[in-house]
Structure formats: structure tokens, C-alpha cells
Amino acid sequence: MRRAVWVALLVIGACSQKSGPAHAGPSETESREQERLHMVSRQIEARGVRDARVLQAMRKVPRHRFVPGSQRGHAYADRPLPIGHQQTISQPYIVALMSELAAVKPGDTVLEVGTGSGYQAAVLAEMGVKVLSIEIIEPLAKHAKATLSELGYAKMVEVRHGDGYSGWPEHAPFDAIIVTAAPPKIPEPLKQQLDVGGHLVIPVGKHYQSLLRVTRTKKGFREESVIPVRFVPMTGKAQER
Ligand code: SAM
């Protein structure tokens, strides 16, 4: 009988130790959320991004889950980060700016060329958009697919391994197209897969690149140059021409 009481007390002791002191600091989830809120106010709103749905999505998507373990401590820093295979996850501000320039609304369908980590696709999905994303490096496509699925974005994002130069004609026309690798010239098939009123947001150039927004009008295309940028080059067919 006495032995049974001791066992019970030991179990209670072990449980209460696990729950920790009442004054413990913020959990990892809470501190990551704080970092994200700072990222949005200091890097993104401060530079003029105003679209409420973009800002909300950037506050919500756990960017640290899209970077390799060795980069987690820098996940909310104001810069791109390596994701392996000599590729990068874009700087948070650039992801927000491109999402704003795409001017999408819930229910739209967007083509992304250059899935990379899957982060840009998750931000768009969080905005209520269906995303079709193409990645030329197979292990990156597989890894992004797994991350998006773990985080519950699988229904909103379809990832395909391949060269995005020719777009995804079976699903065209798109309400918007976001390209996250720079070709020397705008790929013509991407312009042709844009719906009237839709925007193609794309970095273009070899050494010096400009972020362009191409809008399809009833009569043709209108092109705006937004800011100078530096993206990884688009590989595959874009380099053959
Ligand atoms: N959007 C990504 C993210 O959120 O992590 C960032 C992408 S990274 C800057 C550019 C990506 O474009 C790389 O993963 C690269 O392999 C991919 N890429 C380059 N050329 C491509 C092509 N022709 N078709 C599809 N993906 C391509």
C-alpha cells in the first residue's frame, strides 16, 4: 500500500516538472510569430506595401519552415537565404511586392515559375488563390511539395517538376503569373497564357535586372518597370535563346 502511494507521488512529480514554471518565456511558436510581425512592419509596410491581404498572409505563413535548419535563425532577416542547389528563397519584401503587383483576389488562379522553397506559393495560397507552380530542379520541387503539404497548403498549390519557360498551357489563361528566376527576355508563351486584365510579374535581364509588370489589355500588352532587382537566372530553354 505504502509503495503504491510513492509510485503515485513520483508520477505526479514528473508531470508537474514537465509543465514548467508559470513565468516561462514565450514558446518557440510565439517568438517566431513576433519575428514575423516585426518583419512585416519594419521590412514590408515600411517600404510601402499596402495590400491588406498580402500583409496578412506574410504575417501568417511560417517562413522558418521553408528554409533549411541551418538558416532557421535568419528566416525573418531582410535578405534572401540559400535553400540548396545554388538557389535561394527571395527576400521577404520582394515576395510581398510581387504578390501585391500581381493584384490577385480570392478564387483567382496564378502560375508561378520557380517554386524554390514553396514560400511564395504559400503566401499566395494564404491569400485565397489557387497556385500552379513549376520548378526545374527536381529535389527542390519534391521538398517544396512536402513542406506545403505538411503546412496544409496541398489543396491550394500544385507543384510540378519541369521547365516553366513554356508555362502550363493546360491550365491557361491565368489571372496572374509570377516568375521568380530571371530570363534575359520575357518568355513569349508566358505572355500568351495571361488572361486579359491579368499581370505577369517577372525579373528580366542578364547582369542588371528590372522587375517588370506586364499587363494584358484588350489591345495588347502594357509594360511597367518597377525596381532594379537581383534574382537567380532562369535556366533551361530561356538560356538556349
Ligand atoms: N519562389 C521561390 C521561393 O519562394 O522560395 C524562390 C525561387 S528562387 C529565387 C528561383 C527558382 O527558380 C529556383 O528554385 C530555380 O531552380 C527555379 N528556376 C530557374 N529556372 C527555372 C525554369 N526554367 N523553370 C522553373 N523553375 C526555374
Please tag this protein with its features.
241 residues, alpha/beta, Rossmann fold, 7-stranded mixed sheet, two-stranded antiparallel sheet, 7 helices, 24% strand, disordered N terminus, binds S-adenosylmethionine
Structure overview:
By secondary structure, this protein is α/β, with parallel strands linked by helices. The protein has a single domain (31-240), classed as 3-Layer(aba) Sandwich (Rossmann fold). It is 34% helix and 24% strand. The chain is built from seven helices and nine strands; from the N terminus they run αααββαβαβαββαβββ. It has helices at residues 2-19, 28-44, 52-60, 92-102, 119-126, 138-150, 188-192, and strands spanning 81-84, 87-89, 109-113, 130-135, 157-161, 174-179, 194-204, 209-216, 221-229. Strands 5-4-3-6-7-8-9 form a seven-stranded mixed sheet. A two-stranded antiparallel sheet has the order 1-2. The longest helix has 18 residues, at 2-19. The protein is globular, with a radius of gyration of 22 Å.
Summarize the structure.
This protein has 241 residues and is an alpha/beta fold. It has helices spanning 2-19, 28-44, 52-60, 92-102, 119-126, 138-150, 188-192, and strands spanning 81-84, 87-89, 109-113, 130-135, 157-161, 174-179, 194-204, 209-216, 221-229.
Distance between the termini: 85 Å
The coarse overall form would be: globular
- Based on CA atoms alone, the radius of gyration comes out at 22 Å
Helix count equals 7
Summarize the helices and strands and which ones pair or pack:
Blueprint: H1 2-19, H2 28-44, H3 52-60, E1 81-84, E2 87-89, H4 92-102, E3 109-113, H5 119-126, E4 130-135, H6 138-150, E5 157-161, E6 174-179, H7 188-192, E7 194-204, E8 209-216, E9 221-229
Parallel strand pairs: 3-4, 3-6, 4-5, 6-7
Antiparallel strand pairs: 1-2, 7-8, 8-9
Helix pairs in contact: 2-3, 2-4
Bound molecules: S-adenosylmethionine.
S-adenosylmethionine (SAM) binds next to strand 2, helix 5 and strand 4.
